Automatic annotation (TrEMBL):
It comes from the Eukaryota. This is Protein krueppel. The keyword Translocase does not apply. Pfam families: zf-AD (PF07776), zf-C2H2 (PF00096), zf-H2C2_2 (PF13465). Its main location: nucleus. Transmembrane segments: none annotated.
Length: 431
């Protein structure tokens, strides 16, 4: 019998070998705060290695099955813990029953363990999940083993999409799942921003956006990276940060091939090719690639500094400037040179320093052949040309003045000689 041929693509599911996988198996599941790869290993003893060359994505159906089993397993463990806390004191009161009870537990666990190792997926499907307490967290077991599981992934997605999209925007014709989503969408047409930050007055389309924004002022960072313990204001930032650990860059530029971890970064990058600057300052007309940079630029015009240091009362335009300033108070210099060990406060300072070790001199003088490793050195050098130009100009002015004085003296002497000659002629004529 010939082995079945499988066409492996970038959308092949790692678990069921389906062709509609979209989510990275290394990505993190928000409700559980665990990576899908961790859940796979924890539930079915299958270790997924990012470097093994196998498919790296998981489909929606497998995600539901996986999360359903993971949360079922978690609830069973918690219930077992409750039973043990309840029954173990009774065992202690009757020591003679310890061995018999232990043997009963072993006999109960071993058959189930053997069955799970032989065929883990079948074992998952045969678990009696219907129960009065089936509403475990956000994933419903009813959704996991619904009647739609027999349909193909494409049919299931189309069917669920038809059920979801019931409200249509009268302006652009776009469909939404409920009236609240439609109401929020209409605000993008009308420009209405009903939710205001009570600290800085900034307005937002959605209430959750205003709540997330307020964390900038309060310093709250509820989303923590489990790898490096770095904390973030919103989950989207954490998700993008995790890609720095995994190296995943799913968004690729069609022009130059450069890849990015976030779709917004790709959009901004593409504007470097097109030269597009759709956001313009109403004061000076300067263009920007994104609205965030424009808003920061406007603060400089208005001298609006909403971020204040609690130690020295200095105020800053952006939170990143405040964070850099706080490093000075703490004495932090996180960017360290691997060659000489010198540490710097900012990454761009380290980048400029590394040029010294490489021997490159990228900053060239436009007047003379000299080149420099840093732009500040070139700026200082250009002042010498300015001074030389001033000296030449002053010398030229002095020479011009001296020449004009000589010419003036010559004219005066010529005039005096002419008058003297004329006067002699007049006097001789009178005589």
């Amino acid at each position: 019998m010939e082995p079945e041929k499988i066409a492996v693509t970038d959308k092949t599911c790692r678990l069921c070998l389906g062709t509609k996988a979209r989510t990275s198996i290394i990505a993190m599941n928000k409700p559980t705060s665990k990576k899908y790869s961790y859940i796979v290993e924890n539930c079915i003893a299958l270790k997924v290695d990012d470097e093994e060359g196998f498919p790296k994505k998981i489909c929606t159906k497998c995600i539901k099955l996986l999360l359903g089993f993971y949360k079922f397993k978690k609830s069973v463990i918690e219930n077992d813990k409750k039973l043990r806390e309840l029954l173990i004191p009774q065992v202690k009161n009757n020591p003679n029953d310890i061995e018999s009870r232990a043997q009963e537990v072993i006999n109960t666990i071993e058959p189930a363990t053997e069955q799970m190792h032989e065929s883990p997926l079948v074992y998952i499907a045969e678990i009696p999940l219907k129960d009065e307490n089936a509403d475990i967290d956000e994933i419903s077991i009813k959704d996991v083993l619904s009647d739609d599981s027999s349909l193909s992934e494409a049919e299931s997605e189309d069917k669920s999409r038809e059920k979801r999209l019931t409200c249509q925007c009268e302006i652009c014709g776009k469909f939404f799942s409920c009236k609240s989503n439609l109401t929020q969408h209409i605000r993008t047409h009308t420009g209405e921003r009903p939710f205001t930050c009570d600290i800085c007055g900034k307005k937002f389309f959605k209430a959750e956006h205003a709540s997330i924004h307020k964390r900038i002022h309060t310093g709250e960072r509820p989303h923590k990276c489990l790898i490096c313990s770095h904390r973030f204001i919103q989950y989207a930032a954490l998700k993008a940060h995790i890609r720095t650990h995994t190296g995943e860059r799913p968004h690729q530029c069609p022009t130059c091939g450069k890849a990015f971890s976030q779709p917004s970064s790709l959009v901004y990058h593409q504007r470097t090719h097109s030269g597009e600057t759709p956001y313009h300052c109403p004061t000076c007309g300067k263009g920007f690639k994104n609205s965030g940079n424009l808003n920061i630029h406007i603060r400089f015009h208005e001298d609006h500094r909403p971020f204040s240091c609690k130690l020295c009362d200095r105020r800053f335009v952006t939170s990143s400037h405040l964070n850099l300033h706080m490093r000075q108070h703490r004495g932090e210099r996180p960017h360290k040179c691997v060659v000489c060990g010198k540490a710097f406060l900012r990454s761009e300072h380290l980048k400029g320093h590394l040029v010294i070790h490489s021997g490159q001199k990228p900053f060239a003088c436009q007047i003379c052949p000299k080149r420099y490793t840093q732009s500040s050195h070139l700026t200082r050098h250009m002042k010498t040309h300015d001074r030389q130009a001033d000296v030449k100009m002053n010398t030229s002015e002095d020479l011009t003045e001296q020449n004009s004085v000589k010419e003036s003296n010559n004219v005066t002497q010529m005039t005096i000689g002419t008058i003297s000659n004329n006067w002699t002629e007049v006097r001789n004529f009178n005589e």
